[in-house]
Automatic annotation (TrEMBL):
Taxonomic superkingdom: Eukaryota
SUPFAM superfamilies in alphabetical order: S15/NS1 RNA-binding domain
Source taxonomy: Eukaryota, Viridiplantae, Streptophyta, Embryophyta, Tracheophyta
Keywords, alphabetical: Chloroplast, Plastid, Ribonucleoprotein, Ribosomal protein
Organism: Sieruela rutidosperma
Protein name: Ribosomal protein S15
Protein encoded by which gene: rps15
GO cellular component assignments: ribosome
Entries under InterPro entries matching the protein: uS15_NS1_RNA-bd_sf
Amino acid sequence: MIKNSFSLFQEKKGENRGSVEFQVFSFTNKIRRLTSHWKL
């Protein structure tokens, strides 16, 4: 799961680096990771 999100992260980084879309993506990714920790 972590590898998948990392590859997605790398792809997005290449597509639109520094854009608002990328910032939102990374932000939601962090939240998703935190919530997954709480669920476990």
